[in-house]
Amino acid sequence: RRTDDQNMDLGLESSLWVGNKRYRAVLTGWHFKWTEVDKKNRDKKTVLVPVAEVAGVEEGRVEILPQKSVEDTDKDFTVFYVKRSSGGGSYGLLWRLGRIQFSCASRVLRDQWTKHLRAALKTHSPLRPHRLLVFINPFGGKKKGRQIYHSLVAPLFELAGISSHVIVTERANQARDHLLKKDLTGFDGVVCVGGDGMFSELLHGLIGRTQQEAGLCENDPAVALQPCPLHIGIIPAGSTDCVCFATVGVVDPVTSALHIIIGDSQPLDVCSVHDVSAQVRYSVSLLGYGFYGDVLAESEKHRWMGPLRYDYSGAVVYLSNRSYSGIVQYLPADPLLSSPRDKTRCLAGCSVCSRSTERLFPHSSDSGSLYSSHFSQFSTDSEGEWVSVEGRFRCVSLTCMSSSCARSPLGLSPSAHLADGTGDLILVWDTHPLGFLKFLYRHTSTQDQFDLPFVEVHRVKAVRFSVPSGREEQEYEEIGGFSSEIDEGQRECVDTVSRNGSQQHLAQRAMTSERKAATPFLCGLCCKKSPSVSVWNCDGEILPFTKIVCK
Ligand SMILES: CCCCCCCCCCCCC/C=C/[C@@H](O)[C@H](CO)NC(=O)CCCCCCCCCCCCCCC
Ligand SMILES: Nc1ncnc2c1ncn2[C@@H]1O[C@H](COP(=O)(O)OP(=O)(O)OP(=O)(O)O)[C@@H](O)[C@H]1O
Ligand SMILES: [Ca+2]
Predict the structure, then answer these.
(1) What dihedral do alpha carbons 472, 473, 475, 481 form, nearest 10°?
(2) Of 40, 329, 399, 523, which cross-links 464 as Cys (Cβ 3.0–4.6 Å)?
(3) Percent of the chain having pLDDT more than 70?
(4) Per-residue b/e over 417-444, b at no fewer than 16 CB within 10 Å?
């Protein structure tokens, strides 16, 4: 923070005109405000803009959108700023570019205003990026990535004095490989124009690159990962855009561009997913086995449908009425800190996340060092007992954040936190088709999807998953979605707690009537046979393994 004296240096006050109306404009360092003054010198409406939310200052009368135009008058200047609009619904606010064109009494005064405003921006908004590396996926979502970037985002970046190096990708994983191998000197951040898959590429690239440079093996589950120095900006142009929706509250390229320009940031929990050979993948939104894995696998065959492929594949997979055997072990998070049923909603500045950050990283002074001790915390984590459950599941989902998106505005776990170091494990036991439909349908409303007898949710620090022995050899691909094996009857589910490695049975899970009624009446309609193994959906990518360890 600067001292008051330094703030005063940036201050300025004068009369300015907008058309024939006179305004009293005041810059106090942290804020810029203008108040209309009537003929009798009485104050009318005031507009107050934090300097941190000024997007740019230009000499002359300037327009940016839909096209840039400059009327170069020597007594005028234009200020662009973040204007909140109510159009985003109740989940988040749409941001729009506000613009005001002022006329001054003299050119000297005009130059003073532009100089002071720019100096205030430098001093009071130091986290803004100057140089960005932008990856556009031309095939994401409705295939509008290029158009969205060039017509809506590039003009805003230019206005804000951001120079961007743009790469339109020609293949999957190009962005990830670029981040892993190419020179990144001089960039203040990376941006993806695309969906969750593109975000995931950047996430993998940046985490991997940072570990390489630190001489660490990211595939080693015991290694303490190093913090990534670059932030990721997301311009939504995908099919689900869940990471954007869950962090910003709306899926809107202009809102996201403005957040990037003013240097906003939001830390996110990242879950590492190791297979048995310790190959690591990362997830921030949905790690899902069963229904969501099958929907993804099915949807890949129908990419041409664009975003609709998920609804179509959702219906196909729902009608195929599958459930899978699995062994799930989880390490519960401290129930005194928060709960997935506590009806809270995590937003920027959330107190649960702040307290968790303090607790997990007591010596970190900025969010950049958040990750440094993250994994070491787990490797020394001796508190808590692993809980183990086995049975048949419709789906097993782990989400590190709410995973809200347009399909499900409150998300997979409405009270999950963006950056508290935990994820929510949702176990949906096998049930009859209408029960499962009820569960799915509740995601589209404010009804509690966890308030069903065949659904459990646990806030966890780590999860292990495997399929009962004898089943893992059956590759999903071989089965081609429909194996010759007919599912055996429903298994009894058993809760166990592992203490010092030994498994103790806690309770024999009573099979509820919901679970017993698993007779697949729709099965006759659409599939006669069912595979015994599903796949993992890791933020929209299929994982090539079923046995995993996550933390
Ligand atoms: C009756 C209506 C039920 C609507 C149920 C809506 C549940 C929606 C839950 C969405 C959760 C999204 C989580 C985010 C995951 C992302 O990391 C990932 C990458 O983008 N997206 C997907 O995997 C994409 C996953 C997309 C899953 C879509 C599931 C659609 C189910 C439709 C079921 C229809 C039943 C019809 C019966 C005749
Ligand atoms: N030029 C390209 N050609 C083919 N695939 C690409 C290309 N660039 C990126 N990809 C891949 O396309 C996949 C999907 O992209 P993206 O996430 O942008 O859109 P989406 O799948 O429609 O949206 P969402 O992930 O939000 O559901 C990503 O996993 C990415 O690796
Ligand atoms: Ca979390």
Answers:
(1) -70
(2) 329
(3) 83
(4) bbbbbbbbbbbbbbbbbebbebbbebbe
Q: How many A from CA of 536 to the centre of ligand 2? A: 18
421 Cβ neighbours under 8 A, 6+ residues apart: 269, 333, 356, 360, 374, 377, 461
Quote the DSSP letter at residue 408: B
C-alpha–C-alpha distance, residues 301 and 306, integer Å = 11
Q: Rounded to two decimals, what is the model's pTM?
A: 0.87
Q: CB of 407 closer than 6 A to ligand 1?
A: yes
pLDDT in tens, 118-157: 999 999 888 999 999 999 999 999 999 999 999 999 999 9
Sign of the dihedral defined by the CA atoms of residues 369, 372, 377, 380, in that order? negative
The complex's ipTM works out to 0.96
Residue 308 to residue 316: CA distance in whole angstroms = 13
Residue type, 439: F
Q: Is the CB of 266 under 6 A from ligand 1?
A: no
Question: Is residue 235 classed exposed, middle or buried when 0-12, 13-18 and 19+ CB atoms within 10 A define those classes?
Answer: buried
CA of 169 to the centre of ligand 1 (A): 27
For the question of residue 381 being annotated catalytic, the response is no
Cα–Cα distances (Å) from 367 to 419, 501, 515, in that order, read 11, 36, 45
Q: Which H helix or E strand runs over 178?
A: helix 174-181
Residue nearest to atom 1 of ligand 1 (CA): 441
Atom 3 of ligand 1: nearest residue by CA position: 441
CA of 269 to the centre of ligand 3 (A): 5
Joined together, the tokens standing for residue 365 give 């002074």
Pocket test for ligand 1, best of 286, 319, 428 (most atoms within 8 A of CB): 286
Any atom of ligand 2 within 6 Å of the Cβ of 241 = yes
| Mean pLDDT taken over the chain | 85
Q: Which of 168, 288, 176 is nearest to 232 (CA)?
A: 176
Span 471-507, pLDDT tens digits: 654 544 443 332 323 233 333 333 333 333 333 333 3
535: part of which helix (H) or strand (E)? none
Q: Over the range 119-143, which residues count as b (16 or more CB within 10 Å of their CB) and which as e? A: bbbebbbeebbeebbbbbbbbbbee
Which residues, including other chains, have CB under 8 Å from residue 183's CB and lie 6 or more apart?
none
Q: Is 48 strand, coil or helix?
A: strand
Residue among 258, 208, 206, 263 nearest 230 (CA): 206
Domains present along the chain, CATH in parentheses:
4-124 (2.30.29.30), 131-261 (3.40.50.10330), 274-337+390-468+492-515+522-550 (2.60.200.40)
The active-site residue out of 72, 76, 183, 196 is 196
Q: Which amino acid is at 481?
A: G
Give CA torsion, residues 450, 455, 458, 461, to 10 deg.
-120
Closest CA to 113 of 157, 160, 154, 60: 60
Distance CA 275, CA 549 (A): 6
Q: Mutation test of ligand 2: which of 134, 136, 139, 542 has the most ligand atoms closer than 8 Å to its C-beta? A: 139
